[in-house]
Amino acid sequence: MNAAPPPQQRPALPTFGEAFLYWLKLGFISFGGPAGQIAIMHQELVERRRWISEHRFLHALNYCMLLPGPEAQQLAIYIGWLLHRTWGGIVAGVLFVLPSLFILAALTYVYLAFGDLTFVQGVFNGIKPAVVAIVVFAAWRIGSRALKNNILWALAALSFIAIFVFRVPFPYIVVAAGILGFIGGKVAPDKFKVGGGHGASDKNYGPALIDDDTPPIAHTRFRWSYLITLLVMALAIWAVAMALLGHPVLQDMGEFFTKAALVTFGGAYAVLPYVYQGGVEHYQWLTATQMIDGLALGETTPGPLIMVVSFVGFVGAWTKEIFGPDALLLAGFVGASVATFFTFLPSFVFILAGAPLVESTHGNLKFTAPLTGITAAVVGVILNLALFFGWHVIFPHATDAAPFSGGFEWFYALISVAAFIALWKYKQDIMKVIGACAAIGLVYTYLA
């Protein structure tokens, strides 16, 4: 099941069970935020298993980048849907976040019940520099394949300058890149007609199951009946779920996290101020210090960073004692589940409703040129994210006013460099690198 297909042989369609096991594995190893998660999926699905070509992978990713919500999870839903219809997308999306929900709930319980996170902190101290390496590696991997000419390199550089120097919000960068791509497709179509280097994909990886020239699969064609049925069922699920939330705190969470899911343009960091304002200041589910601790947990557990909402839900239901003082663990887990459900439900709707339309455009320059521009911009954004993570890891006590204060963590800088070399030069498995870094961080924390 895990063996890579022969280089020149087109892979067979994986069974639903094989896909299920892969999505489950991905849910446990999806560290590194969206850039790291996308890198993991690219390495496994495009390079190794060849379930989808790089061009089609990037085409789907670019659509996900336009949507509110976690783009890596949405990409998993998209590919799962391509392979095994609607249920394939649902399973891929659920398994992407389910392990994270249980892991984060368990860590949050330890955090609230015992307050001693020395062991957990030690593991995370090692994982954080590995995350930096994974994100840098993702920027290099995507950039080396997607930036095929000087114009796309210039777009990536402009994107990086815009977000790093001028703090331009990510949605504006996406829109601007899409417009420039559209114009570029008219003025210089040869520079924008390749989404990710089709020739390079064939040369490096061999034919894919869903390749650039694969005819549209029957279930991927747009149908009004499917769209209407999907929207009606999604609204019904949301309404029934809201009606089942008997406690006022849970009802507030359902409404609040539904709104949060619809404003998460620009990734988790863009929506965190909104979650902070609602969870800390308005509803007072948790304190500001707890919110910061929750972000640290969210950054270093598998799954999307926006999974920090499950921490907020857990702490809020625990603090408000929604089931009484003797059922705090149950209250916390229910709160975390409610926050997770209402945050991620819209992602399934966006992908399952929009993917048939997107699939019909993958060979049309009018639609692909803007998405090619967005791909170039994303490389710059990922590089900025790598610098942001690296700064927090190497200068953990620094501030915006004094960006290099508080001491330089040379040991964690070395871990980052070693992890990057392991990924880049020695082609090591991402999960093995994360495990090794976690063990090193744990030992160093106890010895320091």
Automatic annotation (TrEMBL):
Sorted alphabetically, the Gene Ontology cellular component annotations on this record are: plasma membrane
Recorded GO terms, molecular function?
chromate transmembrane transporter activity
Top-rank taxon, per record = Bacteria
InterPro entries noted in UniProt: Chr_Tranpt_l_chain, Chromate_transpt
The transmembrane segments are 20-40, 87-112, 118-140, 152-183, 224-244, 256-276, 296-315, 327-353, 373-395, 407-424, 430-447
> What is this organism's lineage?
Bacteria, Pseudomonadati, Pseudomonadota, Betaproteobacteria, Rhodocyclales
Q: Which family does it belong to?
A: Belongs to the chromate ion transporter (CHR) (TC 2.A.51) family.
Question: Which Pfam families does this UniProt record tie to the protein?
Answer: Chromate_transp
Location within or outside the cell = Cell membrane
The organism named in the record is Thauera aminoaromatica S2
What name does the UniProt record give this protein? Answer: Chromate ion transporter
Give the way it sits in the membrane: Multi-pass membrane protein
Q: Which UniProt keywords apply?
A: Cell membrane, Membrane, Transmembrane, Transmembrane helix
